[in-house]
Write a structure and sequence with these properties.
The chain is an alpha/beta fold. 29% of the residues lie in helices and 23% in strands. The chain has one domain: Metallo-dependent phosphatases (Purple Acid Phosphatase, chain A, domain 2, 4-Layer Sandwich), CATH 3.60.21.10. It contains 8 helices and 13 strands. Helix 2 runs parallel beside helix 3. The longest helix is centred in the first third of the chain and has 22 residues. It is globular and about 50 Å long. It binds zinc ion.
């Protein structure tokens, strides 16, 4: 037997043995699990948006691949930044109706800028309303905090709260309370656990630069504070201390990319709504992402053009 043949047959034996081990060991039965990342659904009370959301959630629920859970990447509704109370409630009503009718999978929510109420309204009554800011979205998603973490198998998922009110607009960053929480969260995670970080707005991304149609007249790229975390440098330095951070997932831009930076894979995952329910956005069709997370810390992404 030549060396190459020997290697082939010995690896077959190893594969068969380990397959049997996994068959018999209930704890290591699956080598990986799947997660659907559905972001920027931007649902509103119109037939196109409601049907589109239905189609996307029905699609991920009916995949041949077993999906363990869904991450909602944020911007569930079209917009609460400058919409009346009545209009915001109507959007949440559609979101909750479609979700209860089409989704049977566990779902973890991340908050998007358009989910926050009243930031773009100059109305003292709105600012003093108990539902102002993120209180309404927290209530709709039944969340107790805008940032949190959870563990699934040997992975930890850390969900951040990216968007904050900023002079009547918003800025992408995490605040001081959240950075202290994040530092503790990373410190206290056993390094045998692989970590995936979720933020509505990307921390590292090339598509943030592609959102505008043109560069500045002098050629500079144009990236608004609302399109890329302004505290990326600080976060990247923090992430460098933890070898077990594997990937960061985001939405918001409605475009898709995959950027590796200092050993971490940053995935921006398009939008369920595409061009806010007007077809593809800059060439990217309405989509969601299907992730496969492996026991050994690898991760794979597949984009699903569900429509
Ligand atoms: Zn957004």
């Amino acid at each position: 037997m030549d060396r190459r043949k020997f290697l082939q047959s010995s690896s077959l034996v190893t594969a068969a043995v380990s397959f049997n081990q996994f068959e018999f060991s209930p704890t290591s039965k699956s080598l990986s699990f799947h997660v659907g990342f559905l972001s920027d659904t931007h649902v509103k009370p119109t037939d196109i948006a409601e049907e589109g959301m239905r189609k996307a959630f029905r699609h991920v629920n009916q995949l041949d691949t077993k999906v363990d859970f869904i991450i909602n990447g944020g911007d569930s509704i079209m917009d609460a930044l400058k919409a009346s109370k009545e209009k915001v409630q109507k959007q949440w009503d559609v979101w909750n109706k479609v979700l209860s009718e089409e989704n049977k999978l566990p779902i973890h929510h991340c908050i998007g800028n358009h989910d926050a109420w009243g930031w773009q309204m100059n109305d003292a009554e709105v600012k003093n309303d108990p539902l102002y800011d993120k209180k309404w979205v927290l209530q709709e998603h039944k969340m107790t905090s805008p940032f949190y973490s959870f563990v699934h198998k040997n992975w930890k998922f850390i969900v951040l709260d990216s968007a904050h009110e900023n002079n009547g607009g918003y800025i992408a960053r995490i605040d001081e309370e959240q950075i202290i929480w994040l530092e503790n969260e990373l410190k206290s995670t056993d390094n045998s656990k692989h970590i995936c970080i979720v933020s509505h707005i990307p921390i590292v991304s090339f598509c943030s630069a592609m959102f505008a149609d043109k560069n500045e007249p002098n050629g500079d790229w144009k990236i608004s504070r609302a399109l890329l975390h302004v505290d990326s440098r600080r976060l990247i330095d923090l992430f460098k201390q933890y070898q077990n951070i594997v990937c960061c997932l985001s939405g918001h831009i409605h475009l898709q990319d995959s950027v590796e930076y200092f050993g971490i894979q940053y995935y921006c995952n398009g939008a369920v709504s595409g061009d806010w329910w007007n077809g593809p956005f800059k060439g990217f069709a309405p989509a969601y992402a299907l992730f496969e997370f492996f026991n050994d810390g690898k991760v794979k992404r597949q984009i699903i053009n569900y429509a």
